[in-house]
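Researcher: If only I could read backbone structure tokens as easily as an amino acid sequence. Walk me, if you will, through where the backbone shape changes along the chain. I have put the entry right below:
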Amino acid sequence: MGTQDPSAPSRAQSAPADNPTRSRRHGSGVIHENTRHTTRFVVIGNHLVQHPELSLLAIGLGCHIQSLPTGAGADIKSLTARFTEGPTRIAAALRELEAHGYLRRERVRTSTGRIVTRTVSCNQPKHRREAAEARCPDLPARPAVERASQSRPPRGTGVRKALPAVPQPSNKAPALLQAATDLLADLRRHDSRLLLSAADTAHLAPGVAAWLERDIRSTAVRHALTTGLPDEPLRRPAALLAHRLADQLPPPAPFRAPVAAPPPPRHPLRNCEGCDRAFRAAEPEMLCRECRPASATHP
């Protein structure tokens, strides 16, 4: 029997059959040199960073938004100022993240009455969906890919979300409705995003008329509709205007008693030369009403 040399190298063991990647040579593939983070880091799931359908810009933007502290700006204007991409590409990437559930943008009203957009970042959209299904078992299954945002219907389908109701005037006089229509058509001169279709204008005109009949000047109505709008593009400007018309409707004008008509004038008394009776007349008439026709027939 031969003597074993304890200093001889042991035989190289083959990679397990269930992990064939270990047998590959580390040549052109990525090699990780990882150091454990203890501060200033964020945990992001592989379902986002390795998403098979999101663009690279959307993945990077999603990672950036998840790393932001609460309250940081995540609107198109803030992101465009931070990165070299333009607003069009930034907006497209945000829509991708919304379509796949990683982002949700909600309109909220501040204590001052201004409407702002709040961005909600979801680090696990699937977990949020499963929790909703657990609360509502009859909830229909959501498609894996949802190209369009929930607030915007797909193009070409003809589906259009109904606009909110607007106040109705007590008197729908044609002149009043025409003044309201003219005011709505003029809004685009003050903000190009408020370009309304004919159908939207017809829906909103009674709401504007309800303001005008309450003695609100057209300049005040225009100011209420155009002041404090969000900075980002308006998806449904008509819906925003309808909400403002209903939510900020002023009270009716205070009651004003109608001005009483002046009393009829009291003319001085005169004596009729025909019958010697007294009568009242504005002009120095010589005859009363009964004697005048007889005098006119018999000069």
About this structure: Confidence is low (pLDDT under 50) at residues 8-23, 131-157.
